[in-house]
Design brief:
Largest sheet: none
Structural class: mainly alpha
Order of helices and strands: HHHHHHHHH
Oligomer: single chain
Helix content: over 70%
């Protein structure tokens, strides 16, 4: 189980670190800023999960491999951004893979630490979306998870499958594959077909003006 969680965690870290570095280069941050954003995007979700379940110190701080993987992803993106930018659409698909990795790894690790299955699923979702949220906040943007097609919901679906497998006593590897597949399938279809949840109808300037002056206008 430890090896499974580690592999999923490092895979998700690398993918999300690339996405963080690409955003950093897009906003013209310096080399240090690129590395900071790549680490934040790749590890914020896992650190938050570990703190909440009492796995202290968090793996991203205690294990040097997380820092190396994040720095490697950031360096590659910084040095060869013109190349990576050509594959920005592919990075979107890789982001879906990273989301699946983290959702599954976060849920499995929470279950190992004896967290209630329902909360384990929520922690799995948090692991998947935490890094992207911090990345967007650091560049003063609205977090993608709050406005994109079925992002958090896909992570929650994958985490739910893992929890279901745990309750049915399915081997962890099989549950992880099924959960990751469910998350990937839902995210892929959302990207390809534009599936999304309903958004707020009234934005700035769109809400009806209910103010009346003293003459009843």
């Amino acid at each position: 189980m430890h090896i499974l969680v580690l592999v999923l965690d490092l895979g998700g870290t690398f993918v999300f670190a690339i996405s963080g570095a690409m955003v950093a280069v897009k906003y013209r941050l310096d080399a240090f800023g690129v590395l900071v954003l790549s680490f934040a995007a790749g590890n914020a979700g896992g650190i938050t999960r570990d703190l909440l379940i009492g796995a202290i110190p968090p793996a991203a701080i205690d294990d040097w491999r997380y820092v190396v993987v994040s720095a490697l992803a950031g360096t590659i993106t910084f040095l060869w951004y013109p190349v990576t930018r050509r594959y920005s659409r592919d990075v979107l698909w890789l982001d879906a893979v990273g989301l699946a990795f983290f959702a599954v790894a976060g849920t499995e690790k929470a279950l190992v630490h004896g967290i209630h299955p329902m909360m384990a699923a929520l922690l799995g979702m948090l692991t998947g979306i935490g890094g992207g949220m911090l990345r967007d906040v650091l560049v003063s943007g609205i977090p993608t998870v709050l406005r994109t097609d079925l992002y958090a919901l896909a992570a929650l679906a994958g985490a739910g499958v893992v929890v279901g497998g745990h309750l049915l006593q399915v081997p962890p590897t099989m549950a992880a594959v099924a959960g990751g597949g469910a998350c990937l399938a839902l995210r892929f279809m959302a990207i390809r077909r534009g599936w999304h949840l309903p958004s707020a109808r009234w934005g700035p300037g769109a809400a009806p003006d209910n103010h009346h002056d003293g003459n009843g206008r």
